[in-house]
Amino acid sequence: MTGHRIVSQSEWLEASRMQLAKEKEFTRLRDSLARERRALPWVKVEKDYVFDAPEGRVSLADLFAGRGQLIVQHFMFGPDWNEGCPSCSFWSDNFNGIDVHLAHRDTSFALVSRGPIDRLEAHRKRMGWTLRWVSSLGNDFNFDFGVSFPPDEKEPKYNLDTQAPYGQETPGLSAFRRGEDGAIYRTYSTYARGLDMLNGAYHLLDMTSKGRDEEGLPFSMAWVRRHDRY
């Protein structure tokens, strides 16, 4: 245990109330940002993407499962990989089971990766996930949505063309909406640290005295393992 400041109950309450005021302000700013996010313009998805699913071939429209909205986790799983990315698996552990709740807000959820469908299914079952997962190996979906890149890509085309990709496969999340005309629109995408807010385990750690405790590691998530490998 480090030599942290120890105070009386009254001093702790005073310091915590000051922190609470800052956190309330952050909550108001976050609500404002969410409103601005919802007000963003949409772009029509022009391509008819077809994916490999356990039951056969499915379209992007099929992933909506009759609902008005769809959220896609761009999960890192390359065509020649035998298991999914540890960090993406960490995020999916946080998402597993959430699709039931999203469905009651007119929203479906799916993972999309370039790995072959049999390997995706094997990893899904190994992790114990009930999430929907399909393969984009036979289409340009991952490339068009800025999460897969050729091996020699050096230009800033990741994270909305703001930074160079750090590998052929990168993480992200995209949201879609079905229009009254049946067209599909992309409403939002986020990448890199934009995904941070979606990891409940990280936010629980942020509430502890040690925090994420990642200082001194080769990189921030060097400690992360697939949950059956700890």
What does this 3D model show about the protein?
The chain has seven helices and eight strands; from the N terminus they run αβββαβααβαβαββα. With 230 residues, the protein is an alpha/beta fold. 31% of the residues lie in helices and 18% in strands. The chain has a domain at 43-200: Glutaredoxin, CATH 3.40.30.10.
Care to give the gist of this entry?
The chain has about 230 residues and is of the alpha/beta class.
Q: How is the largest sheet built, in terms of strand order? A: 1-8-7-4-5-6
Instruction: Supply the CATH architecture of the domain at 43-200.
Output: 3-Layer(aba) Sandwich
Query: Beta-strand percentage?
Result: 15-25%
Q: Major beta sheet, specifics?
A: 6 strands, mixed
Global structural class: alpha/beta
Q: Measure the end-to-end span.
A: 24 Å
Mean pLDDT: 96
Low-pLDDT residue spans: none
Instruction: Please tell me what the overall shape is.
Output: globular
- What is the top-level CATH class of the domain at 43-200? Alpha Beta
Name of the CATH superfamily of the domain at 43-200: Glutaredoxin
Using only C-alpha atoms, the radius of gyration works out to 20 Å
How many helices in DSSP terms?
7
Helix content: 25-40%
Labels describing this entry:
230 residues; single chain; two-stranded antiparallel sheet; six-stranded mixed β-sheet; Glutaredoxin
